[in-house]
Amino acid sequence: MASQPSLRLPIINFSKEELKPGTLKWNSVRVEVRKALEEYGAFEAVYDRMSPELCNQVFGELKDLFNLPVEIKSRNLSEKFSLGYIGPSAMMPIFESIGIQDATELENIESFANLMWPKGNTSFCNTVHSLVKQQSELDQMVRRMVLESLGVEMYYKDHIESTDYDLRVNKYEGTQTDKAELGVISHIDKNVVTILNQNGVDGLEIQTKDGEWIRVKFSPNSFVVIIGYSLTAWTNGRLHPAHHRVIMTGKESRYSAGLFSIPKAGYMINAPEELVDEDHPLLFKPFDFFGLLMFARTEEGQRAKFLLETYCGVRDQKMKG
Ligand SMILES: O=C(O)CCC(=O)C(=O)O
Ligand SMILES: [Fe+2]
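Above are the sequence and the 2-oxoglutaric acid SMILES. Below is the predicted complex in structure-token form.
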């Protein structure tokens, strides 16, 4: 189904200098965040700490990275699902993706750069590290606002400590014909929060609860915030996890960078008792993120309409393993 040009994702301004917890501005942004995540599971965050210079640097570095030969990019191996190098495939022929695990640590970006370039690449490392710093700060602000607005801010520290940050950078080749081409198939992220930015070439689409598609137009100094199954489960279904996809329509290539907050191995995702009551019965049994990932790869997982419910929904009692 084509996107509806009249639909827009909520735009929330995070640029105000004094956006500090406890201030009036913080509280009003918090209301907008909660509303957007309940309704759309996503919003655009205007974020002026991403300076135009940093944006140019980020996408310059990503271009250089994807211009490396496939043999070099393929050196980026990872045991973690979808974090190595993903080259064009029959299903997604215009899509390439490269992951860096625990990307808030400069040394992990450096180890990656040492694999790609014989002498490493200081400017790549510093630029990507600055990007990840902005993305992870935004991730934490959003999660703090969510927890505060649900009255469970006492879990904030644990919540942040329960996750790592993986970065995935993507290239979508521009189309050579007038036809729209699929970049990434429709999916719901499985992690907690995803913070995305792009080089000014649009392509990301987010589905509303009514099944309409919103084509998201956003500039390099904005981020799109999308929530995944892990946050929906932890909030006992209060927040809507957004289906999204990428459709390319123009000749120009699109580059994007997504920071994913990912529950640590062994951490059980379990809604706090304050979010479970008569009006809000427990929706999902406690689960481990990697269990959900493994289930997603099974035949039953691939057939599931709403993976989280099939995997650990309380009502249909289909908890696996
Ligand atoms: O490139 C994008 O904008 C979206 C990528 C995406 O959905 C993902 O990596 O999960
Ligand atoms: Fe995604």
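The chain has one domain: 11-274.
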